[in-house]
Amino acid sequence: MTPAARVQTAIELLDAVILAARSKGAPADRILGDWFKQNRFAGSKDRRAIRELVYAAIRACGPVPDTGRAAMLRLAEVDPSILPLFDGSQYGPAPIGESEQPAKGGVAPDWLADRLAKSGVEGREAEALLDRAPLDIRVNALKAARATLVLPVEAEPTATPHGLRLPTGTQVEQWPEFRDGKIEVQDTGSQLACLALAAQPGETVIDLCAGGGGKTLALAGAMDGLGRLVATDTDRSRLSRLKPRAERAGADMIETRLLDPKREMEALADCAGQADAVLVDAPCSGTGTWRRNPEARWRLDEAELARLRDLQNHVLDIAAQLVKPGGRIVYITCSLLDEEGAERFDAFLGRHPALTAQTLALPLGRSRGQGWRLSPFHDGTDGFFIACAG
User: Fold this and answer.
1) In terms of domains, do 264 and 330 share one?
2) Domain for residue 111, yes or no?
3) By CB distance 3.0 to 4.6 Å, which of 14, 65, 240, 317 could disulfide with 103?
4) Which of 271, 284, 334, 388 is catalytic?
5) Segment 226-261, tens digit of pLDDT
6) Region of residue 202 (left: phi > 0; alpha: psi -120 to 50; beta: else)
7) Active-site residue flag, 334
8) Which residues of the chain have pLDDT under 70?
9) In the prediction, which pLDDT does 41 show?
10) Residue 112 within any structural domain of the chain
11) 167 is in which domain, residue-wise?
12) What local confidence, expressed as pLDDT, does residue 247 receive?
């Protein structure tokens, strides 16, 4: 493909991404993946270039663009080398018309950028939310040790006990160390969130919103595979991914439970008041993960944010029913919005006066309200709010 044809293809894919964002359809990575499968004539260099163009254009736009062409014109403002490719050549984009306007830049749609600013995230810190994310892995303590593990490429130790940072784009899934369960891909921020729970061997620990189980596996390692570890979720598809991952990691002490929304305690009745520790990795807007999913900021609206706040309140109240006296609850959101973080935690403590905020001592981050914040700009991690009650 010519460079101009790559630009035109990226424009057409951006049209699909924009439509999907407005209609809550497929994510960008799936749209691109499907196109690549259906258009085998695009070689590996073409696919790489097209992917980079699409995601660079997404990052360059703040509000949802009207069209993929407007998004690409916005990218051309950032990268002028794209402008000559609007040349009208065969398979390339038509020349730029005198009245054509590029999409608006910025960090996010205006209403959302304002919410971030009110949460203390603006300027360079806000811009860092759209940087490219590094590749972090966690050495599985059940099978290996960071100090002695030999990998195919050089890795840099992170601030967590088992963390390593690799060059972006490293294909770790093809390594025998990955297939053997010695390593897992996990952002340093996620590893620190698990560290905050301080899970110990022999304890009863509940991962209340386990999803695919990345944090559950980290907790299993912290517990040396000893004790009771219950992973729960309301999403059958996501939870089903945990079993093969746990088998690969040698974490055979993990128990999974599928929960019925709004009737969660029916499936957890035997755990009521029994947990030494409960991890609440609550569903959230994901503003702290835009480096990985930049089009997510186009999918969020105020109604969805209100729904998520209600859901966060709900799962926190479930955790309060599960923890035993003297136990601890760690609340996590991969969001930098105070209304999903510090404000939700304050409201939770107000509803449960028997619980009080506990001090966290993590090697990265800074205090935010009665909890702790990690951010891409300050810490090089995904954005998180983490708080502990006990």
Assistant:
1) yes
2) no
3) 65
4) 334
5) 999 999 999 999 999 999 999 999 999 999 999 999
6) left
7) yes
8) none
9) 87
10) no
11) 134-186
12) 94
